[in-house]
Amino acid sequence: MKKVFLFEALHEATDEEMAQDPKVFVIGEDVGHYGGSYKVTRDLHIKYGDLRLLDTPIAENSFTGLAIGSAMTGLKPIVEGMNMSFLLLAFNQIANNVGMLRYTSGGNFHLPLVIRGPGGIGRQLGPEHSQRLEAYFQGIPGLRIIACSTPYNAKGLLKSAIRSENPVIFFEHVLLYNLQANIPSEEYTLPLDKAEVVKEGKQVTILTYSRMRYNVLQAVDKLLLENYDPEVIDLISLKPLDINTIERSIKKTHKVIIVEECMRTGGIGAELIAQITEKLFDQLDAPVIRLSSADIPTPYNGKLEQATIVQPQQIIDAVKQICEMNNTW
């Protein structure tokens, strides 16, 4: 085992896959000589050259389109968004080409393409740099959406995403890059369609992902002192959802709390509630509680910004509330 930061885990995954497969390359703004805004591609241009770490102009629609064309011809591009919010400028390419070309070509073209970069609500980055784009992309057919949350799953998932024959949107949270943890020294990959049971419990299932995993765990530490026993699941795969893992947990706890940084309206939590209601309604002993960010642009002011995000105390209160509900609902 070795201890690395999350950005270093992503760097290792990219480096290893580029070494193993000459078809893999990275394209985006400042990914070459600068090494990426969060140093995920640091010094890789020295090892692989400027054509495999391809610095681009500030033109997301153009370089995303270039990456799509290269994927159609057999290459394996990794598109880095300097901030995932900027990729809204390439939404047409992502929706009409990345998600659809395999289908509209009758299977003649594959799109082995990864689109990755920092997203989520940072610290006073303002509304345009603090968007939660998983809600935007989840409605596009043909895309897989991943949200890494630890150095271990960041490396294993990114390697699997690069090797996939299908397009993957890979979300990294801007506040998790300096998260440090042990990962295996030997090579490993992780499945792209599996959630992680972070903590087993019996009373209530808490579904979360990305940065909110840590707000949930802060809340759980305090809840355990009061003899509450929640189960915590990190979704990881936002599309498709690992409904089998979710189902096993709900059949044990019969209560669900969703904790997300996404917007409440049309967010990942909304889709979770829809699927749980359709498939597991009879297993519920209480209404699903959804804790989401406020439906407003993220404020720049630090205190207002924190007020829009789910805090550990809200999770504690929700667990106590749902555990006190009787089973006559």
Unreliable spans: none
CATH superfamily of the largest domain: Thiamin diphosphate (ThDP)-binding fold, Pyr/PP domains
Q: Looking at the structure, what is the overall shape?
A: globular
CATH topology of the largest domain: Rossmann fold
How widely separated are the two ends? 48 Å
- Could you say what the CATH architecture of the largest domain is? 3-Layer(aba) Sandwich
Mean pLDDT: 95
Please bin the fraction of helical residues: 25-40%
Describe the structure.
Helix 1 runs parallel beside helix 7 (151-163), helix 3 packs parallel to helix 4 (91-98) and helix 8 (212-225) crosses helix 12 (312-324). The protein has 2 domains: 2-183, 3-Layer(aba) Sandwich (Rossmann fold); 196-324, Rossmann fold (3-Layer(aba) Sandwich). The protein has a 7-stranded mixed β-sheet, sandwiched between helices. The protein is globular and about 60 Å long. The protein has 329 residues and is an alpha/beta fold. The protein is built from 12 helices and 14 strands. It has helices at 6-20, 44-48, 60-72, 91-98, 101-104, 134-137, 151-163, 212-225, 243-253, 268-280, 302-308, 312-324, and strands at residues 2-5, 24-28, 53-55, 76-80, 114-119, 144-147, 168-173, 180-183, 196-199, 204-208, 230-234, 237-239, 256-263, 289-293. 49% of the residues are buried. The N and C termini lie far apart (48 Å).
How would you concisely characterize the structure shown here?
The chain contains twelve helices and 14 strands. The protein has 329 residues and is α/β, with parallel strands linked by helices. The N and C termini lie far apart (48 Å).
